[in-house]
Amino acid sequence: MNSFKAKYGPWALITGASRGIGAEFARQCAERGLNVICIATNESLLKQQKEYIEKTYGIEAITVTLDLAREDILKVLRPITRNLEVGLLICNAGISSVRPFLDQDEDELLRQFYVNARAALLLARHYGQLMAQRTRGGIIMLSSASAMNGTAYAANYAGTKAYNLILGESLWYELKDHGVDVLGFMPGCTKTPGFEMHNPKPGTFVPVMGVERTVAEALKSLGKHPSRIAGSMNRLAYGVMGRLFSRRRAINTVSRSMKKIFNPFL
Ligand SMILES: NC(=O)c1ccc[n+]([C@@H]2O[C@H](COP(=O)([O-])OP(=O)(O)OC[C@H]3O[C@@H](n4cnc5c(N)ncnc54)[C@H](OP(=O)(O)O)[C@@H]3O)[C@@H](O)[C@H]2O)c1
Questions:
Q1: What is the pLDDT of residue 217?
Q2: Which residues, judged by CB distance below 6 Å to any ligand atom, belong to the binding site of ligand 1?
Q3: What is the mean pLDDT of residues 103-115?
Q4: Which domain holds residue 123?
Q5: What whole-number distance in Å separates Cα of residue 129 and Cα of residue 111?
Q6: Per the confidence metrics, is the pTM higher than 0.90?
Q7: Confidence band, pLDDT 50/70/90 cuts, at residue 182
Q8: What's the rounded Cα separation, in Å, for the pair 55 and 140?
C-alpha cells in the first residue's frame, strides 16, 4: 500500500468516477492513501462519492463536473490541477453502445469517439509530460476485451477501445525510460450501470466480474504488464482465440455472442 502511494501518489485523477468501474478506482486509490480528483458529468453522484471517500478513508477528494466530449477539456483541468501532483491518471470514462452501426447517428458516434479516445489522448499527453518531468507516475488506459478483434454491433466502441489499448501499450514502452508505468487494461463483462443498461440476457455463458476484482487486478498489473485482460477465464478464452482462431473466425465468434447476449437490441 505504502509503496503504491510512494510510486503513484499523492493525487490520482480518475475520469468517469461517478459510478461503475471508475467509482471503484477512486475508492481503491483512496484506500491506498491517494487523494483523488473525480471527473464526470453527474454532479450529485460525484458529490456522494466525495463525501463517502473522504469520510471513509480520510483523504482529500476533489470533484470536477466536466463533459469530456468538450473541445476544451485541458483548458478546464489545467488550472484545477496546476498545484496538485497527479501521480496516477486513470482514463476510465467511456460511452458504450450495442447497436447496429448504421442505426447510430453521427453526433452519437462522434461523442463516443471524443470521450473514449480523444479525451484519453489529451489527458495522457498532458499529465504524462508532467510525470516524465518528475520521473515518476502511472497511467491506466481503460480498454476492453472488445479491442482484441472486430466486434459487430459495437463497431465504433470497439474501435475506440482498440485505440486505448494500442496507445497504452505504445506508451508503456516509450515512457518507461521516464519512470512512468503505463497499462492498457481490458475488462471483460463487468457488472456496472453501463453494462446493465444494455440488458444482457441472463444465463448466457459469459463470466461477469464485479468491479472490486476488476479494479484490484488493474492496480496490481500497473508496472508489471504493458496490457492485461481482467479475469483468468477471459485471459484463457482470448488467449486460445488469439492463438488458434483466424481473425475471421474470432470476429464471427465474438459477433455471434454479441447477438446472443444483447439479443433484444439487435
Ligand atoms: N462494464 C463492462 O462490462 C466493461 C467492459 C469493458 C470495458 N469497460 C470500460 O470500462 C470503463 C468504465 O465502464 P463502466 O461499465 O464502469 O461504465 P459506466 O457504468 O457507464 O460508467 C461510465 C463513467 O463514465 C462517465 N462518463 C460518460 N460520459 C462522460 C462524459 N461525456 N464526460 C465525463 N464523464 C463521462 C460516467 O459519468 P457521468 O454519467 O456522470 O458523466 C461514468 O462515471 C469504460 O471505459 C468502458 O469502456 C467496461
A1: 98
A2: 16-22, 40-42, 45, 67-69, 92-96, 115, 142, 144, 187, 189-190, 192-195
A3: 97
A4: 2-265
A5: 26
A6: yes
A7: very high
A8: 26
Q: Count how many Cα atoms sit within 13 Å of the Cα of residue 116 in the half-sphere of its side chain.
A: 24
Q: Domain with 80 in it: what CATH number? A: 3.40.50.720
Burial (CB count within 10 angstroms: exposed 0-12, middle 13-18, buried 19+), residue 123: buried
With CA atoms as reference, report the closest residue to 52 among 19, 5, 80.
19
Measure the CA–CA gap between 97 and 104, rounded to whole angstroms: 9
Closest by Cα among 129, 139, 148 to 234: 148
SS3 (DSSP) at 31? helix
Strands 180-186 and 86-91: unpaired
Nearest CA to ligand 1 atom 40: 42
Q: pLDDT value at position 129?
A: 98
- Quote the cell numbers at residue 117: 479516445
Report the number of distinct structural domains present in the chain.
1
pLDDT of residue 201: 80
Which atom of ligand 1 is nearest to 143's Cα? 7
